[in-house]
Amino acid sequence: MSGGNNRTSMSIFSGEAVEILEKACKIFSRSFQPLYPLIVKQVSEGTVIDVNENKYIDFTSGGGNLLLGGNHPKITEAITRLIEQRNLFTFQKSYSRDFVEFIEELLRISPLKGDARALIVDSRSEAVEAAIRVARLYTGRRLIIGFTGSYHGLTLGAQSISTDIPTRWKRFEEAPGFVKIPYPDCSRCFLHRKRTECRIDCLDYLEYMLTLGILENTAAIILQPLRSDGVSPPEEYLKNLRDFCKENKILLVVDESISAPARTGRWFTLDYYDVDTDCLILASQISQGYPIGVFLSKSRLLDLEPNYIEPEVGGNILTITIASRVLEILKNEGLIERAERIGRLIKKRLEELRGELEFISRINGRGMYIGFELLKEDKPSRILGRELVKECFRSGLLLKIDRESTIVISPSLNIGEELLEEGLEILDAKLRELYRARTRF
Length: 441
Description:
17% strand; single chain; Aspartate Aminotransferase, domain 1; alpha/beta; 15 helices; 2 domains; Aspartate Aminotransferase, domain 2
């Protein structure tokens, strides 16, 4: 592996980094806990350089926001042109060709069938809140159903439908009108069915609750087709859920904030299922981390009175310009198809390792979003996961740990294949070291 030893020997806690970290610890909320003590100086397509000139391969896409890395020349060019034109304005109180063309393209590629409209807000959380408000207004019902292990944002409604880390959400009081049901996770079925035995009994559970009158006041069901640990529902579940919603006049809201655009090897994860939906949510992955929430829905749902939902900003020309370029780059550079191919390569490497190292558990994900777990005594281990992430960081590889025990691999879609291979070599070496240390005792 080239360069690994050099990274390990370079100092992280010295010079300017120490000064910045000390100030940050004094002035930031203690709830702000970055995964790494990393002071970023520069980013590119797949790498991060800190203020001490340490170089890291980034398998997190800047924590999930930098779909195209941090320095794509076409995005840089578009931003430079905006600045030169002195055209940095806020959209809320005006129209713009850039906004119209962006939404037209987004609606063209979206899985929404028939006439659709868009609402631009300032974050994923606000887009989820908009979905909740629209669903309740349109149906005249109040109950919103979500799924266990999902995350939808930090505002009260979004938080009330999120349970990605139970210990975190127990610290807050939920708003009324929200119910969580088991996510259709075939790799860990709550009904203890084997995949070959599956008859979508988990959906029967939902239908049974409706017949009892428990869920008769349901306005919408909100689902992530790719959960943050890489788990997706089986195809038959999602198709049957769509039919269930239509039959019972319940809106289906699909949150693709982490999975679209193109992350999973399709424009949207829903494209794998060929399933229509009523509402679709996107967030800052589409705009390289610049704040945005996108709520797409069937036209009838957004036929609202003026200012019924009025965001603080609702997008700005910089964010929309970047988002437009992202869509253009994904299409023109063949990155959608590449994401599927690279994802297969990553999964293959992990499956080969699992065959050798018994403590690697389930592997889930689509395209360039893959999650896997480490086991200790047949149970997912948060300690082993955090140890792996820490050791990879020391060797120059950035990984994310999700839901306390799932290691997530989600590089930028344009990461170079040599760089990707180097990162996988680091991961391979550290997994083997951890396995040897574990089996020694």
